[in-house]
Amino acid sequence: MLSSDKNIETITQLVEMVKHNFELRKEYAKLDVVEKVVRLLSAIALAVTLAVILSISLFFLSAAFAVWLSQFTGLVLSLVIVAGIYLLLLLMVYGSRKSWIERPLVKYLSRMLLN
């Protein structure tokens, strides 16, 4: 009888420890998800901020280049040349989008989220 009570008490303790372990793992998973979401959102915010700053800088550099080029070709032709340069860049980026954008982005996100 005494050993049976001790076995029941041991099994009860074991069940309580398993429940506690499960609760701790569930809490850890929640915290891990929150950490990864925060890291992802901060990376997105940084990318958007850098893209806006780069776009504004690129706009002013393009305008300055067009004004400088207009001394040699005229204003309308210089603006067409700048637009043509951007179209060529667009075609280059579109043609190399997998190696320049998709693969690095997939690697970064998988490293960040699966780590």
UniProtKB/TrEMBL annotation:
Tell me the organism: Prevotella communis
Q: What InterPro entries does its record include?
A: Phage_holin_3_6
Keyword field: Membrane, Transmembrane, Transmembrane helix
Q: What is this protein called?
A: Holin-X, holin superfamily III
Q: Where are the transmembrane segments?
A: 40-69, 75-94
The source's domain of life comes to Bacteria
Q: Name one Pfam family in it.
A: Phage_holin_3_6
